[in-house]
Amino acid sequence: MKKVIAVMLTAGLAACDTLPASGPLSSQIEKQAGKSRQELNRPNAAVYDVVDVDQKTARMVASFSSSLLSRRFGIGGAASRVVIGVGDQLKISIFEAGSDGLFSTSESKQTTIEVVVQPDGTGTIPYVGPIKLAGRTQEEARKAILEKLVNKAVEPDVLVTAAGTTSRSVTVSGAVGKPSSVELSLAGDRITEVIARAGGPSSEPYETYVTLVRGNKTASVLLKSLIENPRENIYVDPRDQIFVTHDPRTFTVLGEVAKNARQNFGANDLNLLEAIAMAGGGSDDKVDAEGYFVFRYEEPEIVMDLLGPQRFHDLQAKGMMANKDGRYPIVYRFNMHAPDSLIVGQSFPIKNRDIIYASRHPTVDFLKFMQLIATPVGTASGVRTLTD
């Protein structure tokens, strides 16, 4: 009898992988982590890694999420150097001490000349000729013009002001009041200032995403992050592109919870514990408390910080691929048996489109197997009794 029971237990455990189930076991998720497609013998398998979340990890993810723009673009403290560009309209006022100079009369000792910077970067000043203006600050342009007027005008002085800054403009489009090309001021403008000049956002800040495109770099953040974290509200550069989109944030909860469903955030912020509570919490008799997972496509900088550069590059070599937004698959694991998980869970932010999965306990599959084999055994026993 002992041998029979042992065989049944072995067969039951082996059969667990083929039983009906709502998703993988915690052990199955961990087993596939870090494996290449060749190792998995699945040519199209997704390559990912699993990260156990502790207080340090939760703080790192939360901190990076609130500083994406300043880290990726490497700016945020001050506006870039403001220079004159092609197409800018300048007002150049020339003053002379005498009343019989090149630019003065008995009625006025000054003349104002309007200049448009040409494609070659120059502007033409009477009695001076073409002079390089593009790439210079207003003060540098003033000094260059003044130098050319020495020995020509009577004790000259020059004032340069901008009438139009076509070269210093950014494009704002999407869910704003007035999508347009916005000219930047000479003092520099931050993202929220530019959006305000384009009519402001049309939706709530916690449902509005701002995407900044600069050269070959791009990043998207919530508008509320720019408001709450001034360092993220970086200065824009000429020719930047800003896209504002309304995208109500959602997350999906699957597995051994009371309600498998897609949920709306409905708030500015949401942490892991709040998200699980919104799904009715884990099932007491089925959920594996050590197997709560968050499946996410994460920013490459976060993945590299979490795994280390060498591990990150090794996984790329094994076939880990970014999605269309340049983010990489990562799986966060939480051990709800640990008492401090109730603290760590409050620090870990849920992001838009996250998948939260509560895996079932391994004994659930074994009990299913026992129920499957119990029915035919009981039926056979009943038949034998009637026959006897």
TrEMBL record:
Q: Where does the Soluble ligand binding domain start and stop, copy by copy? A: 170-215
- Its signal peptide is none
How does it sit in the bilayer? Multi-pass membrane protein
Question: Would the keyword Lipoprotein turn up in this protein's UniProt record?
Answer: yes
Keywords, sorted A to Z? Cell outer membrane, Ion transport, Lipoprotein, Membrane, Palmitate, Polysaccharide transport, Porin, Signal, Sugar transport, Transmembrane, Transmembrane beta strand, Transport
Q: Which residues form the Polysaccharide export protein N-terminal domain?
A: 79-161
Taxonomically, the superkingdom here is Bacteria
Question: Where would I find the SLBB domain in this sequence?
Answer: 251-357
- Write the protein's name: Polysaccharide export outer membrane protein
**Compartments it resides in:** Cell outer membrane
Q: Which family does it belong to?
A: Belongs to the BexD/CtrA/VexA family.
User: Which coarse location class applies to the principal site listed for this UniProt protein?
Assistant: membrane
